Amino acid sequence: MSELTHLDEQGRANMVDVGGKAVTKRTAKARSIVYLPEAVLTQLVDGDIQTKKGSVFQTAIIAGIMAAKKTGELIPLCHPLGMDNCNIDIQLNEQSEVVIECTASITAKTGIEMEVLTGASVAALTIYDMCKALSHDIVIKETKLIEKTGGKRDFKRD
C-alpha cells in the first residue's frame, strides 16, 4: 500500500502531507478528445458551433477553467490550489474530432495534474451538454495527462 500516496499504512484514505516538499514551478497539460457526429459537425461555422445556449467552444473554455479552479472541492483528497495560470485550447483534428487541451502552471509544493485533467474533462462534458439536442451520438473518447513538470519526476507523452 505504500506506493499509493493517498493511503496510510493501514490502507485508510488520507491527504498527502506536502508540508516538507520544496516549492517549485510546476506545469501540466491534459487532453480530451470528443467525437462529433455529422449532425453536429454540420453546425460548425467559423471554428465554433452556435446553439440556443450560446457559443459551444467558448462556453466549454470557460467551464473548463472554472472546473480546474475548483478541483480541490470536487476530488476529495486533492489540495485546494491557487493556480498561476490555466488555459484551454479547442481545435478540430483531421478526423473531425474536437481536441481539448488544458494547460496550467503553479509555483507550489504539489502539482496540478488533477486540475488540468478536470479542466479538459469538464470542457468535454460542456460540449456534450450543449450539443446533445443535435445528437446523442457524441462520444467523449479519452482524457489523459500529456505532460507534467516540476515534481519528483517529469512526465511527457505524445
Please characterize this protein's 3D structure.
Helix 2 (56-69) packs antiparallel against helix 4 (113-131). The protein contains four helices and eight strands, in the order βαβββααββαββ. The mean pLDDT is 92. The radius of gyration is 17 Å and the shape is elongated. Strands 5-6-1-7-8 form a five-stranded antiparallel beta sheet, covered by helices on one side. It has one domain (24-150): 2-Layer Sandwich (Alpha-Beta Plaits), CATH 3.30.70.640. Helices cover 26% and strands 34% of the residues. It is α+β, with helices and mostly antiparallel strands.
Short description:
This protein is an alpha+beta fold and 158 residues long.
Largest sheet features: 5 strands, antiparallel
The CATH superfamily is Molybdopterin cofactor biosynthesis C (MoaC) domain
Strand order of the largest sheet: 5-6-1-7-8
What count of structural domains? 1
Radius of gyration (Å) = 17 Å
Mean pLDDT across all amino acids: 92
Number of helices: 4
Number of E strands: 8
- The N- and C-terminal alpha carbons lie at a distance of 30 Å
Specify the CATH class.
Alpha Beta
Which architecture does the CATH hierarchy give at level 2? 2-Layer Sandwich
| H/E series | EHEEEHHEEHEE
Please estimate the helix content: 25-40%
Strand content: 25-35%
Q: Structural class of the helices, strands and pairings?
A: alpha+beta
